Amino acid sequence: MVQQYADAHTSPEPALLGQLVRETHLQTLMPRMLSGHFQGRLLSMLSHMIRPRRVLELGTFTGYSALCLAEGLADGGELHTVEQNPELRSRVERYVQQAGLTGRVHLHIGDAEQIIPALGETWDLVFIDADKIRNRVYYELVLPQLRPGGFVLIDNVLWSGKALPDYPLKPADKDAHAVRAFNDFVQQDARVENVLLPLRDGLLLVRKCN
Ligand SMILES: C[S@@+](CC[C@H](N)C(=O)[O-])C[C@H]1O[C@@H](n2cnc3c(N)ncnc32)[C@H](O)[C@@H]1O
Q1: Rounded Cα gap, residues 50 and 39, in angstroms
Q2: In a mutational test of the pocket of ligand 1, which residue from 25, 47, 85, 96 has the highest number of ligand atoms less than 8 Å from its CB?
Q3: Whole-structure pTM over 0.95, yes or no?
């Protein structure tokens, strides 16, 4: 109900992204992984507010959130996005081209843990949306590469409500335990300030202290 009202009072999805949503639903096994209209507009808005010169995304999938984040790039800015599944490459590159972002959005196929250290950039904004069990690993890899005052956004931090302490978690639910432990870790991390937005599946906003 509230989400429907929020959707109805959020700027519409650009046509190209609507086309990407349709194609993702028709041609991939887990279309629900993409950010979608509401979160996509939020990512675009945050990116416009930050005006980043360098953005890193972990977990490209079909490229929806990459295109949203790229909307706010500063002049001369670039976005690097990392995806482990090589089968997604051609679709992502086609949409990057259609969006007029060739040369500004760079897709890296491989394991994020291997690729992050090799990129050697200083990031203004990082979006972590890959395998949730390694959120902490990615966080520790990107934090030293983040400029002071830079931002990290982490998706799915509510994990369908399983992050909440009174949810009866099964011991074997490793993803949920990892999400919980990560959220608790960031809350204690003196290097950053953080706000958890309970939107969609939870988006954690982190700012590296100066
Ligand atoms: C939730 S989806 C990303 C959705 C996308 N950010 C969006 O909002 O449209 C997660 C993606 O991370 C990728 N992934 C998982 N583990 C990874 C890893 N270790 N390195 C790089 N990509 C990974 C998966 O293949 C999947 O496509």
Answers
A1: 16
A2: 85
A3: yes
Residue 181 CB-density burial (10 A; 0-12 exposed, 13-18 middle, 19+ buried): middle
Testing ligand 1's pocket by substitution, the residue of 44, 80, 84 carrying the most ligand atoms inside 8 A of its CB is 84
CA of 206 to the centre of ligand 1 (A): 20
Complex ipTM value = 0.99
CA-nearest residue for atom 11, ligand 1, is: 59
List beta partners, residue 57: 81, 127
* Rounded average pLDDT over 25-46: 96
The per-residue pLDDT for 70 is: 98
DSSP letter for each residue of 84-108:
S-GGGHHHHHHHHHHTT-BTTEEEE
- Write the CB contacts of 5 (distance below 8 Å, at least 6 apart in sequence): none
Q: Which domains does the chain have, with CATH numbers?
A: 2-208 (3.40.50.150)
pLDDT digits (tens, 9 = 90+) for 142-188: 999 999 999 999 999 999 999 999 999 999 999 999 999 999 999 99
